Amino acid sequence: MDSAPIYHFPRYYDIVFARDVEHEVAFIRDLFVRQMGRPLASLVELACGPGYHARAFARQGATVFGLDLSPEMIEFARAETRSDPAAASMSWQVANILDFSLPALVDCAICMFDGLDSLLTNAELVQHLRAVGRNLAPGGLYVLQLTHPRQASYDHYGPFHYQAERDGMSIALNWGVNDPSYDLVTGVAQVEIETTITTAAGRDVSRAGHSERLILPQEMALMAQLSGALEVMDWYGDFDPRVRLDNTPRSQCMLGVLRKAA
């Protein structure tokens, strides 16, 4: 596994990537009710970062777990939620999504923001899916978000630019400044990220790299089948049940829904 350097600096990450996830949470909650006929009661957010989705589910009454490989991210999530009225229903754990164990089975697992692209081999994907299956209750769902091929594919990569300001600090990320491409055999790209931090004291520019795997729906279906733990139910193009995954502009991402195999 490999992760982008921004993941080790949660304050910067939070400035750039914090967003309102309520409509995404509503989509997942309603999807679960349609499939299971009851409200979602428990959830784990994998590669959770600051735990935006887990925190939103907890505020709606669910018992939630947030797992991330970065100790910095987990400590940030804990600090951000200590004064939250729903803090008692949140648990944060430094853990590898390849192999983890929760204290209880959960109704749903989610992995947002391309959290799976750090799993670089088929063996890692299968191992991960088996771990998810072990921690899901019977019939439980796994919802994962991947980049749409319109934005990153074997033909092109990006570009991706993110910028935000808060507390007198401006953070700018240029993702893929090395014009990366996915290896046709492995599906892995070596991606460099340029980070610019501007404060009253001046500007700091740094560059670092990491590896990303391109995962397509047919690959995910095959990995799920090989895992014996999950099966693909459906694909959406956005957090909207009316938007199917296709090549139209309405599809903004690839949103996969998997279910624990009987």
What CATH architecture of the largest domain do you see? 3-Layer(aba) Sandwich
Largest sheet: 7 strands, mixed
Shape category:
globular
CATH class group of the largest domain: Alpha Beta
CATH evolutionary superfamily of the largest domain: Vaccinia Virus protein VP39
Mean pLDDT: 96
Q: Helical element count?
A: 6
Helicity range: 25-40%
Order of helices and strands: HHEHEHEEHEEEEEHEE
Overall tally of structural domains: 2
Q: Provide the low-confidence segments as ranges.
A: none
Q: Kindly, what is the distance between the CA atoms of the first and last residues, rounded to a whole number of angstroms?
A: 29 Å
Report the strand count.
Answer: 11
Beta strand %: 25-35%
- Output the strand order for the largest sheet: 3-2-1-4-5-11-10
Name the assembly state. single chain
Question: Structural class of the helix and strand makeup?
Answer: alpha/beta
Radius of gyration (CA) equals: 18 Å
